[in-house]
Amino acid sequence: MEGYAIIGWIGAITFVVAYFMLSFQMLSADKILYHALNAIGGLCLVINSIYLEDTPNFFVNFIWMGIALYSIYRIIKLTNQKLINNSQDA
C-alpha cells in the first residue's frame, strides 16, 4: 500500500472514530478533541485527494477541515472569554 493510500485510510478511520464517539456520547461537539479529529481526518483526505487528483473529494474535505479549525478557534475564544470574565468577577 502506498503512502498516500495509508494517509487516506488514516483520514477515513479518524472521521469514523470521531463520529462513533459523538454518536455514543463518548465525546461532545463542544470539545476540541471532536473537531481536532475532524480536522486531522480532513487534512489526511485532502492530501490523499490531491494525490488522486480527485477535485470533489478535495473540495468537501478542505471545507470540512476548515469548519473543524474554525470550531476549534471558536471554542478556544469562548473559553478564554469565560476565563477573563471569571477573573474580572473575582
TrEMBL record:
Domain CBU-0592-like residues, every copy: 5-77
Transmembrane segments: 6-25, 32-52, 58-76
Keywords, sorted A to Z: Membrane, Transmembrane, Transmembrane helix
Pfam families for the chain: CBU_0592
Cross-referenced InterPro entries: CBU_0592-like (IPR058058)
Record's protein name: CBU-0592-like domain-containing protein
Annotated organism of origin: Draconibacterium aestuarii
